Every structure is written in C-alpha cells, then in structure tokens.
Amino acid sequence: LRRCQPRPVLHLQRRSSMLSVCSGRPRATIGKPRKGRCGSVAFGGVAGSTSSLVRQPQKQTQSLLAVPRRCGECGLSLRAFEGALHRCSDALEWPFGGEATASRDCASSSSSGCRVVRLGALAVKEGKTSPASETFEALWDFIHEDLSHGFHRPDAGSVAAGSSAVLLALRGRQVAGLIWLERIAKATLVAADGVAEEGAAMPPKAAEVPASLGVVLIWVRRTERRKGLASAMLDAARGCLASIGAPPVPVEQVAFSQTTDMGSLFARRYIGQAHQGAVLQYTPVCM
Q: Residues of 250-259 as b/e, b for ≥16 C-beta within 10 angstroms?
C-alpha cells in the first residue's frame, strides 16, 4: 500500500523547474541593435561590424566638360554644340562612280586600296543640272576651303574635249583624293636651289622644255595623307591622258602649277632625278 501512494512533493518540484526554464526565453530584438562580442553589433540576430554603421565618404569624380575640338576632315575648330551638328564629311560622298574609259589604269586599284575613276563633263558642269554636278559642287567647295586655292571650277567643255581631266580616288563611296590635269606643250624648268632673299622661290636660271601633262591641282583627304595616294592618282592620270595604245606619259614630261611647300616637296619626290633635282612648272589656263 505504501508503494502505490503518489508523491505530490516531487511532482510539484518538476513542474516548478519547467516553469522556470520557459520563463527564461530571450526578448525580441528585431530592429534593435544589441552589442555582441569584440565590439560587434547584431541586427535581428545577425552580427555585423560597427564600421558598417559609419557612412563612408563618396569618391570625388571630375566631370568632363565640353571643350572645343578640331575636325579631322576639314581642320575647323568646333565648339561643344557645333561638333555635334558638324557633318562636313557629307560633301565627300560620291555615289555615282566614274566614266568608262579605254585605259585600264584609270579604273585600277592603287596601292592604298582606293580605286581611281575619271569624271565626265556632266559631273563637273557648273550649275545644279544633275545630281552628280550638285555633289561635285559641294565637293569642290570643300576642297577650296581646305586648300585655299584660287582656281576656278574645271571647265566642262575642256573635259568633254579631252584637253583636261578630273580624277577621283574613291574608297567605297567616300572621296579620298582628287587630281585635275590638262594637256600642255611646254613648261619651265625650275631649279631646286633657287631661293630669293625674301624667302620666295626664284630659280637662278629657267629654260622652257617640252612637256605633255600639267597638274593643275592635287588634293588628298586629311585622313588619307602619307599613304601614297597622290602618287597613285598621278600614275593613273599619266595612263589616262596617254594616247590609245601608247605607254603612259613619261615622268620627265609632267609639270606642276605653282605649288605650296608640301606640293613642291611632293613634286620633287615624284620626279626624282629626272631633271637633276629640278621641277617643271607652268601656268594653268584657268588662272
């Protein structure tokens, strides 16, 4: 009978111990930082470094200002908003090709990767008589501003008669260079060592010699210079203006108009020692 009797005292002790354990649960810490070990701070039970609470200073960056720049095609100095609207390269587009010719050198590809074509009389005719003439007028104005020359526009009558020719160097549909030539009978031999006291070229002795080809004007796009394009156009021109079945015009019979310093340097390099360092010069008909 003693064994079956309950022990109420022990049961109450166990119940009180359970209540004491349940009453010791932690408080809610959501949104409230609490300190942890080693100076760390916990947010919602996740510990983090105290340095993350400090706002880091932003890095100082320098803003880019719109400064004037120089156009690589025409050399014009442009301001910030002018550069966005400047499109001078539109005048250098030629989608019309060239006139067919019997000389295969006229449509051949040069060493610079451009093809040289010959323009017809309708393309160089003054006035907006055709889309080609209108495009050539814009191209001629661009060349006039780039070289600042005083030549008039090529005469369509002389181009149709064959006494002069205009050739374009094309890279795709973009004009890379232009050369204007005419047939001549004689030129003046100018020595390379004749320099006047004021700095202007003055040959000590000049003699008229026979010549066949006169270079009125030669122009190369700024981005295409120093690539041998001027020499390639002149080589094609010597073949274009030669007679049918005849070899190209000899280098010794090529004359140049009154050139600039760079033009004179090119003429002497192209002629070489054909005249012992001298260059043939002449006065174009259009002047």
A: eeebbbbbeb
CA separation for the pair 149, 143 (Å, rounded): 9
CA angle, residues 117, 238, 108, in degrees to nearest 5: 35
Q: Rounded mean pLDDT of 54-80? A: 69
Kindly tell me if the per-residue pLDDT of 212 is higher than 50: yes
* Total count of residues recorded for the chain: 287
Type and span of the H or E element at 57: none
What's the CA gap between 147 and 235, in Å, rounded?
A: 22
Exposure b/e, 167-196, CB count within 10 A at least 16 = b: bbbbbeebbbbbbbbbbbeebbbbbeeeee
Q: Are the C-beta atoms of 107 and 101 separated by less than 8 Å?
A: yes
Q: Which amino acid is at 139?
A: L
Question: Mean pLDDT score of the chain, rounded to an integer?
Answer: 75
The pLDDT tens digits of the residues spanning 254-280 come to: 999 976 778 888 988 998 877 877 889
Question: Cα separation of 194 and 88, whole Å?
Answer: 39
Q: How confident is the model at residue 43 (pLDDT cuts 50, 70, 90)?
A: very low
Closest-CA residue to 206 (of 265, 263, 279, 256): 279
pTM of the full structure: 0.68
Beta strands in 72-212 (DSSP E): 77-78, 115-118, 164-171, 174-183, 186-190, 207-210
Task: Report the SS3 class of residue 149.
Answer: coil
Question: Tokens 């320099």 appear where?
Answer: 195
